[in-house]
Design a protein that fits this description.
This protein is α/β, with parallel strands linked by helices and 448 residues long. It is built from 14 helices and 17 strands. The radius of gyration is 22 Å and the shape is globular. The N and C termini lie far apart (47 Å).
């Protein structure tokens, strides 16, 4: 499958099959949810995705946290940072080499880049000393990543969301803002740097922010970006048994709702199974969704004089990055033009990539009186639209979702699909009828 934009073709030429992307930003900026949504989007587009976990978390979870291990010792902190960087380099390079050896179009997503380690050190002199011990320079670090995405901390303009998260307990609001500024300044000279700020539209939230973040990466890669609007349709099951359906790669998704889930607030596990190798799982994700009443949440954020006003993404990306990527500029994207809210509710969602062991442990908390959903999904582009065709085995329904640029866009369906379109899903009742929670028997279980 080949996707084209005006200046980039995907898959890229063989010599440029692997792209490396770093996510950065202050605490509670939405990196975890963005990574999960980005991974799902790119896999749906047929790409091979590798995720580099945050090295600091790996070390801390192993019992060697920075504060607990090093205390206030300057030498111990330097040693901790040096070894963290060594571990991070090794993981990044190992996954990169595996991706290259596969000879498949791949994206390596890094949960923070090497330059993020600067926040653990007291001054620039110490940072440069650490780089020297590793035979590294900032220019060499820039050249490792083809694109850097900065997600601004919720402490700047989304304070209510910041204080509502567990990560906020580690840093005060001012500390989070300082870390955010440090990271933006450190990465700002990367040739392909983009910063996504917090939405300044009342009623918008993390969902809107992550949508813009994913769109930025998709534009960089030259693939179809997710759009704001969706149209949904029911499709005749006769399509599955017909010869008209083309040879589109399909993959399987398993959804399991956990105890305590309701129609307004639910938590579920998503397991994605490879389309190429039967039984091989690509990823595990824990998702939470909550519908709340809209209240003023996102306060306007003061403009930082060090950052240029939003100019849109630099789409003319040119050739693959050279060794010196330090002479470029940055772009700042603020979701200012979000569509107005049409209802008095807002959907808040978070997604976290988890390990197979975590998935197995959480599966024991499956919601009683509901059943896991098995969905066979096909994704494909057609005439500037993006289609997602889902067959739910348990509910025996075939649903189509189409991404459109406006609410009223007239969809141009492929000829093989058009005769099988049944009805357009409109209104709250219809939407609720086909929600995964309802299809899994969740509403029945909720009433017990």
């Amino acid at each position: 499958m080949v996707f084209k934009s005006g200046m980039i073709q995907w898959p890229p030429p063989p010599s440029e099959l692997v792209r490396r992307i770093a996510l950065t930003g202050g605490p509670c900026g939405g990196k975890t949810t963005t990574m999960a949504k980005l991974e799902e989007r790119l896999r749906n587009l047929g790409m091979q995705v590798f995720v580099v976990p945050e090295a600091a978390s790996l070390i801390t979870n192993a019992g060697a946290g920075l504060k607990s291990t090093c205390g206030g010792s300057a030498e111990a902190i330097k040693s901790w940072v040096i070894n963290k960087l060594k571990m991070q380099q090794t993981i990044e390079d190992s996954l990169f080499r595996i991706a290259v050896a596969s000879e498949k179009a791949s994206v390596v997503i890094c949960d923070t880049g090497l330059l993020d380690s600067v926040i653990h050190l007291p001054d620039r002199e110490t940072w440069l000393e650490v780089l020297s011990k590793l035979d590294l320079t900032e220019q060499a670090i820039f050249s490792r990543y083809d694109f850097v995405l900065h997600l601004s901390t919720a402490a700047k303009g989304a304070e209510m969301f910041y204080y509502a998260t567990h990560e906020a307990g580690c840093y005060t609001k001012m500390q989070a803002i300082e870390i955010d500024h440090t990271l933006r300044d450190a990465w700002g000279n990367h040739a392909r740097f983009s910063s996504v700020e917090n939405p300044q539209v009342e009623g918008s939230g993390i969902e809107e922010k992550t949508k813009h973040a994913v769109a930025n990466v998709c534009r960089f890669l030259g693939v179809q970006s997710p759009t704001t609007y969706r149209q949904q349709y029911t499709v005749s099951l006769d399509l599955l048994g017909s010869d008209s359906i083309p040879d589109i790669d399909a993959f399987q998704i398993e959804i399991t709702f956990l105890e305590g889930s309701t129609s307004l607030e639910n938590t579920y596990l998503r397991r994605r199974i490879s389309r190429k190798h039967v039984g091989e799982t690509d990823s595990f994700t824990k998702c939470t969704k909550k519908i709340t009443q809209i209240t003023p949440l996102w306060a306007p954020m003061p403009v930082d004089e060090k950052v240029s006003p939003p100019k849109g993404l630099l789409l003319d990306l040119g050739s693959f990055p050279s060794e010196d990527c330090s002479s470029g500029g940055s772009t700042v994207v603020t979701p200012l033009n979000s569509p107005p809210q049409t209802r008095n509710t807002r959907l808040e969602s978070t997604e976290t990539l988890i390990s197979q062991r975590e998935y197995s442990n959480l599966s024991t908390q499956a919601m009683k009186n509901s059943h896991p959903l098995t969905i066979k999904r096909r994704c494909f582009p057609h005439d500037s639209f993006w289609f997602q065709l889902d067959y739910c085995k348990q509910a025996q329904v075939l649903l189509l979702e189409v991404e459109t640029s406006t609410k009223t866009s007239e969809v141009n369906f492929p000829e093989w699909l058009l005769p099988h379109i049944q009805t357009k899903i409109t209104g709250t009742n219809d939407e609720t009828k086909y929600q995964p929670f309802r299809l899994a028997g969740g509403l029945d279980a909720e009433g017990d």
